[in-house]
Amino acid sequence: MDGEVELRVDGRRRRLRVDTRTTLLDALRDGVGAKAPKKGCDHGQCGACTVLLDGRRAITCLTFAVAHDGAEVTTAEGLAEGGRPHPVQEAFVERDALQCGFCTPGQVCSAIGVLDEVAAGHPSVVTDDLVGPVELTDDEIRERMSGNLCRCGAYVAIVDAVRDGAR
């Protein structure tokens, strides 16, 4: 059974005909040609497929494309503004927060989502003060980024890059 989906991917409107069982990840990679979200585990465990979906981070291998008709999708490819990389992307490069690079697009999108969550005051399981503003500690960053795995083990630099990206 096919369905038609319209997505705005990295600022461009895209209309796709997809099987109703097609994941958003497959629609992005195969239907749109987006290369940033990666198919890592295909079970929602590694975070390599993370994008910003209507402004919030989302794991695309666990959701169907037809459930997001009309959605705004931002991949790591669409983060640059005016030809200049997003500050979080710059921080990842400056901090050398990548090695093989496979997980990096998902890490960057997740980091931007983390910073937006913190700015909005959303607590996590390690947040001390559930009422006041959220302080972006290393523990806070590690907890919030825990859904994004790095096979190369660049975690220390990733935490530094997220902290730098907040500035």
Automatic annotation (TrEMBL):
Keywords, alphabetical: 2Fe-2S, Iron, Iron-sulfur, Metal-binding, Oxidoreductase
GO MF: 2 iron, 2 sulfur cluster binding; metal ion binding; oxidoreductase activity, acting on the aldehyde or oxo group of donors
InterPro entries assigned: 2Fe-2S-bd, 2Fe-2S-bd_dom_sf, 2Fe-2S_ferredoxin-like_sf, 2Fe-2S_ferredoxin-type, 2Fe2S_fd_BS, Aldehyde_Oxdr_Iron-Sulfur, Beta-grasp_dom_sf
PROSITE patterns: 2FE2S_FER_1, 2FE2S_FER_2
Highest taxon of source: Bacteria
Chain ranges of the 2Fe-2S ferredoxin-type domain: 3-79
Pfam families with a match to the protein in the record: Fer2, Fer2_2
Pathway membership: Alkaloid degradation; nicotine degradation
Gene3D superfamilies linked to this entry: 3.10.20.30, [2Fe-2S]-binding domain (1.10.150.120)
Tagged with keyword Transmembrane: no
Protein name: Xanthine dehydrogenase YagT iron-sulfur-binding subunit
Naturally occurring in which organism (per UniProt): Saccharothrix texasensis
